[in-house]
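[Q] Does anyone have a clean structure-token version of this?
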Amino acid sequence: MNTSTRMKLGVHLGFAINRYPEPMEWARMVREDLDVGCVQFVSDLLQPNYPKDVIKTQVAEIRAACDRYDIEIAHTFTSPRYNFFGHPDEGVRDYWLDWFKGFVDISSELGAISTGSLLGIYGVKDLDERKDYILNEVVDRWHELSSYAKAAGLEYLTWEPMSITREMGETIDATKSLMNSLNESAKAETPILICLDVDHGDVSSPNPDDLDPYAWIRTFGKEAPVLHLKQRTTNVFSHKPFIKEFNDDGVIFPDRVQEALNQSGAEEATLFLELSFRERQPHDSNVVAHLRESVDFWRPYCV
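[A] Here you go.
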């Protein structure tokens, strides 16, 4: 097997929100139950608009838990799905910029080298009537955020292409265009790279590559230090674990991800298992077991 791209395996902490909110508990679980040493921290576990003393206490607890269980937080990501910089109201857009700066600070204090999010989401009316204006507002705020991130010591930002025009980056061509706008050399003071999700892409696109996860990886792997993994079956709108039930009907496999990354020219990528579990039984009780089976599925291919 060609392993020219080094694939590092990690776990996205979305599964821990409201299940394992205690830092010492999710850190223990990741290390002892899953035997993984890398996580992508998410903002719902520590909101930047919490009181400053709460943030200070939580950061100290998270760092202590990661030290105890030898967990690395190199990357963070937002977890809510709001309009962010695409909101129709300028004051709300400015609020989100301050919010993101706060999350940059938290990320830096946790030892991360990057933080990321989706770019922003258009309201339906703005998509029809003010698409270019709102896009310029989004890009301008990402440029300002890149300057703030550089001053805070982060190496880069990441954004996640989505699956519909309103959420931005729904096709390969749209993502290329956005990358050009985001990384204008005079305005982006730290690189704005990509967090690829193997389950995204526009199902209505006439270009079959737009729904081919491996085409996305081949195209953007070199610009995507972070990937979000979940199994993808005939229902692409899911965050399914890599368990036999879904792998038998799945399209996401480690050797094919490895091959696509090799073809992209990427030297290294961190692959985070971004799995969701319904708040229903037996799903809620299967979280640990299905995470463990998913880790075991990927471990032979990753460090």
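[Q] Thanks! Anything notable?
[A] The chain has a mean pLDDT of 94.
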